[in-house]
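Progress against Task 2.4 (sequence-to-structure conversion) is shown through the following example record, which the project officer requested during the mid-term review.
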Amino acid sequence: MRKSDLPLQKICRSLIPLLLLYFAGCHKPDTGGSKDDPGGPGNTDANIWPSSPPAEICGNTKLLTGPDAAPAGAITVPAGDNSKFDFDRKGATFWLAPGVHTIGTDPLSQIIPADNTTFIGGPGAILDGRNVNQYAFTQRAVNVTIRYLTIRNFVAPRDEGVVNHDAGDKWTIEYNTISNNKGAGLMAGPNNVYRYNCIKDNGQYGINSCCGTELNEVVNFVLDHNEITGNNTDDWERKIDGCGCTGGVKFWINKNATVTNNWVHHNKGVGLWLDNNNRGFVIENNYINDNDGNGLMIEAGYDARVRFNNFKKNAVVAGMESARKGDYFPVPAIYISEAGSPRGFNLKTSPMLISNNNFENNWGGVVLWENANRYSGSSANTHQAGTIKMRSLYDDGPCKSGLPDVIPGSMPDKFVCRWSTENVVVENNEFKIDKATLGCAGGNFCGINGIFSEYGTYPEFGGYQIPWRITFQQDNVFRNNHYYGDWQFAGFEVTVPDGSRVSWSNWTAPAPPIPDKPTVDNRPKTFGQDKGSTYVK
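Structure tokens generated for the chain above:
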């Protein structure tokens, strides 16, 4: 029987495991909040996290094998050297015959699709860069579809990508294996849909969803039912210390992205990393485990809805390395760094919501942090960017005075220059840890949740003003969570003055009044967090 482009059988096969998961294998956590709250029962129709990976794609030949004959009207592309093949045909469907396809010996040889074209691989069809070609599919054609191919051995430069190199609009990439490439396996552009792909063992990123501009934002990216594993094989963070240039998926200036039902695991760094002015994210029903770094990091950005995900054994590698160095900065499963949902800016989710997730034997849980010295135009910020409060995400000029790290006096409110960790609610989650299993029993490096900053050393936000703001004045709340095991907390600063952590009793005891003049002598000892939560050590 001839296979169509998108067989109904495959759709059914993909639904059956989800139905079984719903009826038999998923855990239903408690619900909470009001019906008007994004985390309340009025908005929790799924209300489950996956107990097993929802997207076991890699090696799944039933999902990844394409039609064994060319679909009606398709143009057959024979295996072998396709460097002279004419792919510049608008609206065409190309069927790549079984076997290995190459595109010549020029490093810049590439396939440039025309608008409305579709590429379908036959059984075992491979597009091989042979460690010579940098790119597979490039340029800015609209409405391109790529299915059932293995795309391997391309050598994109750092920060560039192999598939959809130029972030074209309305690309659909599904049922592919994209592996063993340098750089990023894929870039992403506006209105892209990436689903049911195996994105594995690429040199830098699995996907680099980069880079939106003021006139051409990356909007409405859908990432659903992909297996994203083993990426950053080149270990770029060690090659360029602090580059922030790795991850299973990296998002940079994206708006209204949907990240659902993916299996993100064993990446050599952060699993999902939202970096720089991302907003409007929905991150739900993913299984995120065994990533060397944080399972999820949201940095210098805005609102996200993070619900019904299962986080297991993330950040253990990074946490152990940090502990060996004697660094007490927590290494959590979810790390929020200068990000939140400030009111009054028409953000999609307010508050930013981290709810109804399972956290099990990660190095840490959820950390809300704000660098006192990082703001638009400061030397502690590593890229040129504005903030949503400045009404421009791309221009830091209004916050620069010409003097190092000084905001001009003409700026009526200097706090608009900050990415602030504010209006974040962490609720209805389960936090479980067995420190003996992790190898960190007896210390205070692992098993940390927290809200904190640091003593500011730059002129604009010096002293303890930012620690007080993030901890007590910016509507950051933990509530209605359930803790199992030896959890400790970081409040106000990384540790209390004697180097210990905040205890459960002090974390939950009523918060103190805000002092008129914060000093080293009136730092808080209690925090008023986790009302309605339970703690079983």
